[in-house]
Amino acid sequence: MIRIPNPDSYSVVADWTELFITVTGEFVSKAKLTHLLERVSGQEPSEAFITDVWRELEKRQRLYELAPFTVDSLVVEAAESGSARVAYLACLLMSLYGVASGAKGAAKLFERLSCFAAKAYLGGCAVVFGWPVEPGDEPSIRDRIIELASKLEERYVEAPAEKYKDRGVDGVAWKPFYERRPSQIVILLQCAAGQDWRIKTNGLPLRAWEQYIHWSNNPIKAFAVPCIIPDRDWHEVAKEGGVLFDRIRITNLTSELEKDDKALARDIGRYVTKQLGEVT
């Protein structure tokens, strides 16, 4: 059986339920979930706890553009629309189990996925900027900022000390105009694939980036996580991190991943396969 990392958290159990029904093709009833949780924790969960799990899943179903599952009063099951997309599964696995024990380069994989989502959101362009850089990319942050400014037709001014590596920016997305002149929408994206994401929402110094590049129109911040940000934290996290990309939004924005970026879809598929082997 797929391991439940924390049977005492209704949001974790909701994540696990999504993963279980997607991977196994089996449905989960309230009675079945109660039995599974009792087997894992040694005590029967309360009816209120199971109700909280159901309410969470019902809320999520409404937020997904094409919900990967359906919920009724007694049963949760995978949607009939076909197999779930790999981006959705990868986010579920990262949310449940973190990235420390995942496949090599899982954090970098999430940066690539988040950049794809930001690019789809803007209908524009995006590049991965975060450290460590991809093979063949320029390791110097100065050279990478100069290259970035050139791509965006913006004016390079100066670079931070090399010790900063990426200065909090994991990806950059922008919406260019046809004639490619500056003064455009630019997003500086920070990604947090690990379970300690909440402490990282202030990790992108936007004012410093306004010194490195003389932007015609100052960029905005964005923050990406593979989990679902709770409603109670949404406003505060948005104030700290900027435009939010959580699992709901990333899933909604990556419906064309397999068609538009076959290499990324393949790499995510390999990650999902390896990680499922570690948690079952």
Description:
The protein contains 11 helices and 10 strands. It is of the alpha+beta class and 280 residues long. It folds into 2 domains: 10-84, Arc Repressor Mutant, subunit A (Orthogonal Bundle), CATH 1.10.10; 100-260, no CATH class. Strands 4-6-7-9-10 form a 5-stranded mixed beta sheet, with helices on both faces. A 3-stranded antiparallel beta sheet has the order 1-3-2. Strands 5-8 form a two-stranded antiparallel sheet. Helix 4 (86-97) crosses helix 11 (262-279), helix 5 packs across helix 9 (247-253) and helix 5 (106-122) crosses helix 11. The mean pLDDT is 94.
Question: What are the SSEs and their pairings?
Answer:
Blueprint: H1 10-24, E1 28-29, H2 30-41, H3 47-63, E2 69-71, E3 75-78, H4 86-97, H5 106-122, E4 125-128, H6 141-152, E5 155-156, E6 171-175, E7 185-191, H7 206-212, E8 213-214, E9 220-224, H8 231-241, E10 243-245, H9 247-253, H10 257-260, H11 262-279
Parallel strand pairs: 7-9, 9-10
Antiparallel strand pairs: 1-3, 2-3, 4-6, 5-8, 6-7
How do you describe this structure in short?
It is built from 11 helices and 10 strands. The mean pLDDT is 94. 47% of the residues lie in helices and 13% in strands.
